[in-house]
Design a protein that fits this description.
- Chains A, B, C, D, E, F: Its EC number is 2.7.7.56.
- Six copies of one chain form a homohexamer.
- Chain A is α+β, with helices and mostly antiparallel strands and about 250 residues long.
- The first copy, chain A, is built from seven helices and nine strands, in the order H-E-E-E-E-H-H-H-E-H-E-E-H-E-E-H.
- A five-stranded mixed β-sheet of chain A has the order 1-2-3-5-4.
- In chain A, a hairpin with a 4-residue loop joins strand 8 and strand 9.
- In chain A, helix 3 packs across helix 5 and helix 5 runs parallel beside helix 7.
- Chains A and F meet through helix 3, strand 8, strand 9 and helix 7 of A and helix 3, strand 8, strand 9 and helix 7 of F.
- Strand 9 of chain A pairs antiparallel with strand 9 of chain F.
Chain lengths: ~250, ~250, ~250, ~250, ~250, ~250
């Protein structure tokens, strides 16, 4: 880490929005943003704004019945004008696109990665992440915000006697952040303008203990070396530690 | 239920939320709520919260080409946890439900009712109304908020030289409000708890000049008389006049 | 168009088809038009021709089970060449259009408005309205014809001991008619040629007792005043009284 | 069943409806049944009742452009209560079933089999066959009725100068009839009650010249021999000759 | 085309691939081609290559429950590059085309035609025929190959005690072959190049006993006479006898 | 399970199929497996068997027109009985599942990662990967096989003068392999039985130069540390080097 910071300090790279290469955009996590859901969080990472809700329901889908285990699943979507050009609604087109499917599955896996399904019992938590405004990093913001909504939903279930208070349903925190290589330079937390010019793009979900839940690195435009991978993971670790601090802070404010 | 009924029986009817029968819920209209759309409004009517965006694009759909006329259309949707029980996404179900279709069409007609298509020229404005939280009156809140977003989009197009500044594209204001008969008593602006027990339910869209753009009254549970219709329209007129004052106030704050 | 306009200007307005402004088109109601359904009606209003069937089945949809209540629902559709230009089948397009949804829901609400669900018990009546030829007023003809099919299906169920003979399942008649303002003049029962030039268009469903079940007035092209609303409702009342007489006549002929 | 079987055992087989084994059900062909289509025919074969329309449009689908050839296509559908049990609409289910597809393709092939695509030029004729009431033989009735609608549409196009009067677009007549083996006995024109107990079932489309356009024989329940095939084709020839006489008679009545 | 035509004119007709008019293409039937299915067959008829699998499952679809009868069904599909031009996947288009439906139903009927549903008991066999390479005759190759997969699945079920060993579930063999008239000459087993120029095209499924299960003859381009039908059936009988010998040979090799 | 676990405990870990932890399953790459496609490869990795075809077409999708750049895209699918239990066809269900979408996108990105879109010019290559038999690692086998099909399609285009011979369209090789942690032990190339018990599962696509195109590591069941990541990448590098040698060998055999 120190090495990277040192290297980065020499050139003193400045990004379009004035951030240092290892600096997150301003993050704001608003809990209880709407009243109906068991967990409802608005997360803002720079201009990216995602509404994350967690729905707790007793019982599990049929294929999971009588297993004694719970289930956590996620759905991601973008409002039509989250983006600078309007995108048609998937409901109107009558089918879900590949990108939506891919991201929904990613979010679901990350959250399941920190939930003890046995402790959850035969209950289901459905996560919905709806992007109100998109400026890069919507999938990682979704994961980070969804964790807080999940924590609130579990707390709600405990306070409503749907889960025993002493069960440790959530085994660890989880947050995620994007990193990428732009113009040969590894950087943390890419907004859209950077993301679209990145040669390599990686999303990293980490636990509070510092282990990985999911790594997705893609280099459609220029393959990346193992050394670059190392640098990217260093940045991602730094970003995730900071995001997790904000998650904890938000969850302590009640 | 019993409590509400009892309350309604007293001379001076007081509603569950303490309002008088002819009183609107608190309304808040926030313009420029997101940055990407040409018009972006968050409208809050009590707990009902709808994000209304207006997308201005040059050109019209194929069937409208070479007519010299513009087009305005609308799409309405609810986020899964806008409601107390989670509703499945229409994108996941692969089809749009009848209610969504019905409301989208209503919103589109109401806005077209105040737009001069010749003045708009061959340009299109797409309205998106996404309900973030639903507590009754989501379709009327959508119309009221969408009008403000529409006005902003037209102003944007003028300032970007896509419409000539002196064209009067918008002929009049439009707002909408719900009214209904509960326990024999006509009332203004029903939240969910009242809406679900209303015998008659009516949505009324009016222009600034006080004429009707759309009246939809439905009495699945008990037919209504012409006298009741008159009382409901009186309430709706009062409500719409107040909503229009708020629209004007919002549009004057820049 | 010019011809029509000129005709409308004269004192004694005569319509393209020679009717007075408050005159219905010729109506013919043929019961038992096909043999399979429990109720089967062909209704003809001028050139508009709709086949209305009522299917009586024991049991209700799952969400209604164990409520002790029945259910009435409706589906509306147009054959491809009901219109002068062929319209693609919704089955081929793979989805139901907004207009179809909107009208199906309207028909369903109107019929439910006169059915006592408790008296119907846990039975379902499905109404199908298929437009064989369309010349304006297809949705109102559907409601008027569907009522007769519904009455036949209830009678069938009673004669087959699926409903007790003394239960009053149908509380009142219901019929519907369109009215509109053409060139400033309110008129009753608009055929396609008039409907397409109407500034205001309203569909009114009434009970035999003269109360409203549904009012849908839309003024995409020119808002309407409360005075015009009054005149339109007068015409609609006259039209509905006449339609109800024809319904009763048809039901008495066995 | 037993009764029918017993009846069939007697020397002079009499069918449930009193017909001889080689006798068609009563056929009625009504031309100009609705006004909008270029060809509109109601065909009734016993209780089976199909509305056949032909839509003539200038131009051909894209894949056929600049070929100098025309195109004829067909769509078949059943109204929900054409049958004794209501069948769900394919538009509501969101997809077309295999049976519908199979029959639509059959009808299209049969009509194309008698049309000279060069003489038709780059014009399209769309056939719609909507079954209003089904009592067996709906696909063969559709073909027989559609031929008459097709002939009317071609005549319409000629009288409207969209086809030159001297072009022989239709090369020959086409009609179709079902035959089947019931209880070992070949029979002509099966209504539903017979069709459902047939071991072998065959649909035969023939030209006026007596050649075959399509033969579809299926023996899910008991294979058939070549001798039986011969007998079935004899019956089909007789039936088709009679149907073609009725087609000619209908077309001569104007 | 000219070359082929010239060749066909000579006394001893020789086909593009050198075969006599009554000669099958080389056939290869490979059993146990994959390991997972209860029956798995690769059938090659010339260049046409179809993977046929049979899935045996205990229980039947809901509509068949408590009937004591089994069920056999089939699904046919083509891989995108089975053909010389790539065809879009039906999964991507979101719906199954008419041709696929038609062929799937044909295969299902042919196999059901030789299965004793009572002997099968309440078990289901699902046939999947996936065309890996298409050079004409894919539907008939599917039927011929599927029969072998079906036989293997029944044997598997017997050896796994899911069917009693002494039950004769399969009553007879079934195979299918295409025949057609090219340039006035009836021919057996048409590859794509011949199929596309055939005036008449017929698919004939026969049992080992020599009876017909299904005959589908279509003559979109030139009607066929009864004499031609006879010749085509002669060729089809010869072809099917040879195919059945190959099926038996394959089933004897274990 | 117990047996496997015990085996893994011994010093020299032996896997269920006898392989060492860093050993690939036997791989077979068959080029020109079918004749129609421009590239057609059957790849077998143990029992996993995938048919990979590459379709070369001139021109690009509309959104890419006039860019001077080519396009490469991929679609992945499984035949219904590739798996031990039959899975329903996505064409029958009417929609593509999330897993299919996710894998199709992965394959597309990996191949685009080694193609020079400028050198390809405005041409498109569509990759189809159809899994005939699935035993783990189907997505990585697809990538490895698709690369060979892609190379053949490019060679085909050059020999057919659709690409200039001296253009280096393919910049590098690409192959992919799965690695995972089972019972704490990193292993290479997991078959289904191992994959289903892996705590961490990673797919790694590498170029011939040893750089990464895509890394997807997921740890739904137990997060993984950076040290484990290192070990997994070492295994993946070894596997990919071996797979690339086999790709080269296959491409040299003509």
């Amino acid at each position: 880490m120190v090495q990277i910071k040192d290297m980065l300090d020499v050139e003193q790279t400045i990004r379009p929005d004035g951030r240092a290469v290892d600096e997150l955009r301003p993050v704001r996590i608003t809990r209880h943003w709407t009243e109906a859901p068991e967990g409802s969080v608005l997360i803002e990472c720079g201009k990216t704004r995602v509404m994350c809700t967690a729905t707790f329901t007793q019982g599990v889908p049929r294929w999971r019945k009588d297993s004694g285990l719970g289930w956590v699943t996620a759905e991601y979507a973008m409002l039509p004008r989250a983006t600078s050009e309007r995108t048609d609604r998937e409901s109107v087109r009558g089918k879900i696109g590949g990108r939506t499917h891919e991201i929904s599955r990613l979010i679901g896996r990350c959250l399941r990665g920190v939930v003890d399904m046995k402790a959850l019992g035969e209950n289901q938590i459905q996560i919905d992440c709806d992007v109100l405004q998109a400026d890069g990093g919507t999938r990682t913001a979704s994961i980070t915000g969804a964790y807080v909504a999940l924590a609130d939903a579990v707390a709600w279930a405990k306070s409503h006697k749907m889960l025993r208070a002493n069960r440790q349903v959530i085994r660890d925190q989880v947050s995620a952040v994007s990193v990428g290589v732009i113009d040969g330079k590894p950087m943390l937390d890419l907004p859209y303008v950077e993301d679209s010019q990145a040669m390599t793009d990686m999303n990293v979900a980490m636990t509070g203990a510092g282990a990985f839940i999911e790594i997705q690195g893609t280099a459609e435009h220029r393959p990346f070396t193992r050394a670059e991978l190392g640098e990217l993971l260093d940045l991602a670790e730094k970003g995730n530690r900071e995001l997790q601090a904000m998650q904890r802070k938000a969850l302590n404010e009640d």
